[in-house]
Write a structure and sequence with these properties.
The chain has 128 residues and is mainly alpha-helical. It folds into 2 domains: 1-60; 68-128, no CATH class. 73% of the residues lie in helices and 0% in strands. Helix 1 packs across helix 2.
Length: 128
């Protein structure tokens, strides 16, 4: 049965690629594929055990998927050395923006749910 759930993941990714290319969207196909998978899970109402097992196995070995990217960086280390300043600025700005947006979303969600964003809800005796 795990092969069926791997197929589901791959079909969602393929569907995302097809949608992205047909509609000429600025989103990567795998991101659209995740949205398709999410919509399917919402409609289904739960995560099937087999899918959870397959996804957990992939996530446990996620670091292996970064090997090709690391090899690419090492292969083109000369280009990285030439463009170190713009790369550094892009990395720093993207990290700062990601942290800021995450904090704002967290604060808004806490406000909407009536929870204190200071972390009191996670202290012993606090609301969960």
């Amino acid at each position: 049965m795990p092969l069926g759930f791997i197929t589901v993941l791959l079909v969602c990714q393929l569907g995302g690629e097809v949608v992205a290319r047909l509609l000429d969207l600025p989103l990567p196909g795998p991101v659209i594929g995740m949205l398709i998978l999410f919509a399917g899970l919402v409609i289904h109402g739960r995560i099937p055990d087999g899918l959870q097992t397959v996804a957990g196995g992939l996530l446990n070995n996620l670091s292996l998927l970064f090997v090709p990217a690391g090899v690419g960086v090492v292969t083109h280390i000369g280009l990285v050395a030439q463009a170190w300043l713009p790369l550094t600025v892009a990395l720093v700005v993207s990290v700062v923006l990601t942290v800021a947006v995450t904090a704002l979303v967290f604060a808004r969600l806490c406000q909407r749910l009536g929870m204190p964003p200071e972390g009191d809800a996670y202290k012993p005796g606090g609301r969960v």
